[in-house]
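Listing S7. Sequence submitted for prediction.
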Amino acid sequence: MNTCGLKAFPLTRALRGLGCGLVLCTYGAAPVLADDTEIFSGNLRSANPNVLLVIDTSGSMDEPADNERAPFDRTAVYTGNCRSDSIYWRMDEGTEPDCLNEGPDNYFEPEALVCDTAVQAIQSAGFGLTDGVAQWNPATQRWVPLAPAVKNQPIECEADAGLHGPDSGDTRRWPADVTQWTNVQADRFDFSANFTNRPFIFYDGNYLNWLRQPPAPPASRPSRMDVVKGAASTLVQTVNNVNLGLMRYSANADGGAGELAAEGGMVIYPVTSLGQTSRQELVDRINALDPAGFTPMSETLYEARQYFAGDSVLFGRESRLWPGSQGGFDGRFPSVAASRSVDGNQYISPATAQCQQNFIIYLTDGLPTRDNSADDEIAALLGVVDPGADVTGRHAVDDTAEGARPSASRAGVGGEVEVVTP
């Protein structure tokens, strides 16, 4: 993979704290992550990577999730070894602190965290991640790497530099040595100095205690869809320096319609840079999803490929939230206008720059069903890549993913656009 000199921030780190097994995966199987799946975060010198979430909205997602705890509730107090009134931290790769045997001193007082990016994520999801973190040392009057023994000195992050200072009303929005804060950008602290350019995850101690709660009893287990909604919403609220979009399956007709019951999927939120408004809009779209219909995985993956390539819309013109009419609304929901050309027939690719990475993430509970309407298109896509590919049944998803990687080319962005798929 060509990283163009960017610092790699593995996608697994962004998803590890979600508290479920639904990352590019199916229920009953271990999470599957492509070896080269990376998100780039912090000190970016090129376009942010594009990440497209594809959420399974088939009827089986309404079933109870096995071995899942109840969703995290910020108003509840969970018992455990972690201090519920503290923020814990982990640097680089690893697992969450267990507050007993591994890194029990890696915590500080919540008031010390002035990195508003992490604060907002913790308040929304229970944890936050960022690159470039430093702590004020009053003795040397310098910003230095975090020290486990120091619990009450300001902790700032590079993501906040120029946007938020010691508080929301202070005009000094850059950390600086000697003066601690400055409103002069040229005097700002360099987060590449003194080993402060490392990736961190910050955790609410209460959230860490929740992570170690036992599974909910059978009668109160969340549905698979509830688990996926929580996982996807948490990702939206915590990840930084990426562009995110959302797709779902189309529910075109009831089961008696055979293959026509499910016809691919549609873009319900275009790949967009993350800000306060777009995060909330994405979370609202995720929370509005209702499970119904079948599982056209390869058809939807092919549609995602069309979107990234800026090619013709196949299923996203006649896609539906549900068959027929409900409450006076006929359920028709084409791919959103922002993802398509004015006439609606062509996708507008979110891949706009050379060296920009593109990822498709599936959150699903099972194997494809009613999923053969794009077989001819997939076969044509694979004609050069793999002339002997079997594009029927379970093989279609793998082959569509294989075809999407080298074929999604975009004029004007330096040739082929790499799409990393399940």
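Caption to Listing S7: primary sequence and predicted structure tokens for the chain studied. DSSP finds eight helices and 18 strands in the chain. The CA atoms of residues 22 and 371 lie 21 Å apart.
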